[in-house]
Specification:
By secondary structure, this protein is α/β, with parallel strands linked by helices. It has one domain (3-241). Helices cover 54% and strands 15% of the residues. The chain has helices at residues 16-28, 40-48, 50-58, 67-77, 86-100, 111-124, 143-153, 166-174, 189-193, 202-206, 210-217, 219-241; strands at 3-6, 9-12, 33-38, 61-64, 104-108, 130-134, 157-161, 182-185. Helix 1 crosses helix 5 (86-100). The longest helix has 23 residues, at 219-241. It is globular and about 50 Å long. The two termini are 27 Å apart. The model has no long low-confidence stretch (mean pLDDT 94). This is WecB/TagA/CpsF family glycosyltransferase. Pfam families: Glyco_tran_WecG (PF03808). InterPro entries: WecG_TagA_CpsF. Keywords: Glycosyltransferase, Transferase.
Length: 243
């Protein structure tokens, strides 16, 4: 896979299959891989937060998780790339982890949602080896204990369902202490897979309207992100075009 510089961020041009294959190859070589998914929200955050921008720039793999990023790449760079969502990547990795007997760990969301996630995952992947789970509502002074519990489990894949920028800052701080090969943020994937929230219909996903589905489900929580931040992303895209 090659890197495409977009909004000062290095985006991988691989599709879902290539991304999963690259991750598995690097796990088999016992490498540590920090994977980041970038959507319009993450682009805006990286412009407002220099530390987050630096973290993404230094990540081992960066996928285009949002349709807006895919379209911006086509318009600005004249290059077509596939959207590689966190949830689709995670599901394919779980499938491969079951087949290859690779251990996984889930970090994030509420405890009751984690319990439902565990039921769903065990039904879908009955032979998957889950080395541990930890909710994401712990205090800052508890971070060290959480990291030590994860490290003791030695997961080959660590999936993190926490909000930005805390998720990125947590990984940046403890990456070398987590004792995991893959460290991957998956946004709200835990909530979707547990049934807490629904994912957009396939036609909305294909046509870039997944954000609208989410907005309709949680307008009060998401109006700022999907109206003001999306407008700012459009502004950044136009600004990049006229440079």
């Amino acid at each position: 896979m090659n890197k495409i510089e977009l909004f000062d961020l290095p985006i991988d041009d691989g599709n879902l299959e290539e991304t999963v294959e690259e991750i598995l190859d690097r796990i088999q070589r016992d490498e540590v891989i920090e994977h980041v998914g970038v959507n319009s929200n993450k682009v805006v955050l990286s412009r407002r937060n220099a530390k987050i921008r630096e973290i993404i720039q230094q990540a081992d793999m960066v996928s285009a998780d949002g349709y807006s990023v895919v379209r911006a790449c086509h318009w600005l760079k004249k290059k077509k790339i596939d959207r590689v969502t966190g949830i689709d990547t995670m599901m394919e990795l779980l499938k491969q982890a079951e087949a290859l007997e690779l251990t996984v760990y889930f970090l994030g969301t509420k405890e009751e949602i984690l319990d439902r996630l565990l039921e769903t995952i065990q039904q879908k992947y009955p032979r998957l080896i889950i080395s541990g789970m930890q909710h994401g509502y712990f205090k800052q002074e508890e971070e060290r204990a959480v990291v030590e519990r994860i490290a003791a489990c030695q997961p080959r894949m660590l999936f993190i369902g926490m909000t930005s920028p805390y998720k990125e800052e947590f990984v940046n701080k403890y990456k070398n202490e987590l004792n995991a090969n893959l460290i991957m943020g998956v946004g709200g994937s835990f909530d979707v897979l547990s049934g807490e929230i629904s994912r957009a219909p396939a036609w909305m996903q294909r046509n870039g309207f997944e954000w609208l589905h989410r907005f309709m489900k949680e307008p009060r929580r998401l109006y700022k992100r999907y109206i003001f931040e999306n407008l700012y992303f459009v502004y950044l895209t136009v600004q990049e075009k006229i440079k």
